[in-house]
Amino acid sequence: MLSLDAPLNAEELTELDRRRVWHPYTTSPTGSRQLLVESAAGVRLRLARPVNGVEELVDGMSSWWAAVHGYAHPELDAAAHAQVDRMSHVMFGGLTNESAVRLAATLAEITPGALNHVFLADSGSVSVEVALKMCLQYWRGLGRPEKRRLLTWRGGYHGDTWHPMSVCDPEGGMHHLWSGVLNEQVFAEAPPVGFGADVDESYLERFERLLWRHAEELAAVVVEPVVQGAGGMRFHAPEYLRRLRELADRYDVLLVFDEIATGFGRTGELFAAGHAGVAPDVMCLGKALTGGYLTMAATVCGERVAEGIAGGDVPVLAHGPTFMGNPLAAAVANASLRVLFRDDWRAKVHGIAAGLETGLAPAREIAGVRDVRVLGAIGVIQLDHEVDVAAASAAAIERGVWLRPFRDLIYTMPPYVIDAEDLGRVTDAAVAAARVG
Ligand SMILES: *Cc1c(COP(=O)(O)O)cnc(C)c1O
What we know:
Layout: H1 10-20, E1 37-41, E2 44-51, E3 54-59, H2 62-65, H3 74-86, H4 98-110, E4 117-121, H5 124-141, E5 149-153, H6 162-166, E6 186-188, H7 201-214, E7 218-223, E8 227-228, E9 234-235, H8 239-250, E10 254-258, H9 273-276, E11 282-285, E12 297-301, H10 303-310, H11 327-342, H12 345-360, E13 369-375, E14 378-383, H13 389-398, E15 401-402, E16 409-412, H14 420-436
Parallel strand pairs: 3-15, 5-6, 5-7, 7-10, 10-11
Antiparallel strand pairs: 1-2, 2-3, 4-12, 8-9, 11-12, 13-14, 14-16
The structure holds pyridoxal-5'-phosphate.
């Protein structure tokens, strides 16, 4: 047996990893090796072994939208250390802790409308499960258990557990693999693209017709507001959200916004719902919640949903993960929010948006590039073909940048703390990746 503290060099670790560890969307053993990160600070990942002489990579991905303040941030580190010294975790059933209480109170305050009831879960997918359970239980509480299906538009991504998977884009979510297994939801066409585009009234009419036809069996409309992330990095006009709010009210279904990717400033508003000035009935938060330090997510809902659940035959929200309200994650989340507001996230995100516009513009001239788009601190180069991920990643690494293209997309959402020079590196690398990808 491998002794728990046997010394392992980088070569041995990467090979063990390849043979023993599942990575996202891979086989096991994996077909190729992962890069071993030795440490990270600021916007840089330090590799355990240089790749063609490159030892450090500027992180263009913020560890999948999460590390908005970069790595080893002194205040987030201090918050984690201080909380570890008090307690890392204590159960949330019958007990509570200051960090979780403070976090919930802050989230209730900063989210749109009156979303005053906060459920702290341990991952984005679980927060979506909780949101959907809230909606279904709400209608049960009102004596209408038949309202249990969900309406969403195509092109979405809501997580990898079962109920969230059922509202992911049917193709991206591999519904063909799961036909007969996943709950069958109601899908509208993907929303027309273009943040600044006029709304397409005929699209909304078709959406309304679906809602009208299925209203009696629908619990909720579930969407990612403004940016569809892992489903294709597509942006739509905020006006659609205002209209969804009206339609949801007219046909008596709840409205759920999944802001797991968009929350905490990424799109240029604190929450993407802010572009439209509307509040959903239930909102999911995750990813950047802890500044990318620890896994924590939140589902927040308003009075209507909380009271509906409380009025049911089973008058409690029947969900309670072991690590609910984890004090360590909550303490870091509190520190992350303090830094976010103090350091003027809005100015930073607007600065990054300008840098992305300028830096990615040359990609428009490359043959095979279909579209280049920027919203807030999100930059996307869309090709007219599937990216050669190995070639595109290698081109970025050669320029000292970490990017993780997927499908036909080379995209970046850098940490908010990135400076102009490093942002230039990231955009140069993305353009170079588009050339070879
Ligand atoms: C990442 C993501 C999720 C899932 O979150 P996990 O923490 O990976 O479970 C759900 N919805 C959206 C919009 C996401 O971007």
